Amino acid sequence: MAFFITGVSGFIGFHLATALLARGEEVIGIDIHTSSPFLSKERLNLLKQHRGFMYQAIDVCDQSALKALFAQYAHIHSIIHLAAQAGVRRSREEPALFARSNFEGLVSLLEASLTLKQINHIVYASSSAVYGRTKEFPFKETNPLGEPSSFYAVTKHSNELTAAYYKRAYNLPLTALRFFTVYGAWGRPDMAYFKFAKAISDKKPITLWEGQNLSRDFTFISDVVAGVLSLLDRKTRSFVPDAVNIGSGKPESVLKLIKELEKNLNMKADIEICPRPLEDLEQTWASIELIKKLTGWSPKTSINEGIAAFSKWFRVYKKLENQKN
Ligand SMILES: NC(=O)c1ccc[n+]([C@@H]2O[C@H](COP(=O)([O-])OP(=O)(O)OC[C@H]3O[C@@H](n4cnc5c(N)ncnc54)[C@H](O)[C@@H]3O)[C@@H](O)[C@H]2O)c1
């Protein structure tokens, strides 16, 4: 039995694959290095050192390539679909690219997955962004989804509608993973915590959005990995949830995140306050009662511990980057 991961050399895909390989599983992964190619290739090099890992450079929108891969690896029993264009502000600049990777990518994957005979569970990345402009806190899976604040949110919302159709039409065991601001080592350079760390260490100003409640449900990567695995490891298919929040359940102010980075990098931030762009929500806050009830999982890492671990890795990454340039 094998696990199939799309977006395997991305931030979350890399950590999930590493955890699965460490426990002796077979992992088949695809990616085409569309985001942060330097980090993406470094992550892939690490994955390739594991026996049990197989990689192909396949675009998830290429349905015939996926079908050929699934014919070769018919023993795939779990699919983790993470390949996508991520980032709320960039989705305004490149909506067609986001629509293709995020919307067409899921349809292509689901069509190809119909050829697999032993599928236990298909989980795919959704996002806290689907809750949109809402005043209902914390965000519960049963809440009606709010007005999308970005085109990125539109693509993730439409993924959930697509999945609802495939679940009904073909009885596919599909679950949306609604991730909340995932951070950690090998993370994404376009995300705020990473940009802040880079600006602080380069002695450049950092931009903080206006807003008294500017906060995020920051979730440390190892907690996210444990949460996803807890869902995949459930033996019973009697109830396959449509959507599950994977968050810390404890929003922290963005200012606190900056303070933790300052402490760990031992440098002061130069903060510029600017109006919040239309795409960014003021606050995110996950209810994690559903996943706790289903699997017993709960997050273990505080923001202090998580940022300390990220900062330790960030120092090494900076050296690697400097050597490259
Ligand atoms: N990191 C977060 O905080 C967060 C929060 C909410 C949702 N998500 C979602 O989780 C998933 C993984 O996020 P991440 O942070 O690891 O992002 P990431 O950008 O690091 O990883 C995504 C990977 O998908 C690959 N990819 C993109 N288009 C592809 C295509 N057409 N074919 C094959 N590969 C393709 C990219 O090259 C990249 O390696 C994404 O779907 C993202 O939208 C992430």
Automatic annotation (TrEMBL):
<protein>
    <submittedName>
        <fullName>NAD-dependent epimerase/dehydratase family protein</fullName>
    </submittedName>
</protein>
<keyword id="KW-0520">NAD</keyword>
<dbReference type="InterPro" id="IPR036291">
    <property type="entry name" value="NAD(P)-bd_dom_sf"/>
</dbReference>
<dbReference type="Pfam" id="PF01370">
    <property type="entry name" value="Epimerase"/>
</dbReference>
<feature type="domain" description="NAD-dependent epimerase/dehydratase">
    <location>
        <begin position="4"/>
        <end position="247"/>
    </location>
</feature>
<dbReference type="InterPro" id="IPR001509">
    <property type="entry name" value="Epimerase_deHydtase"/>
</dbReference>
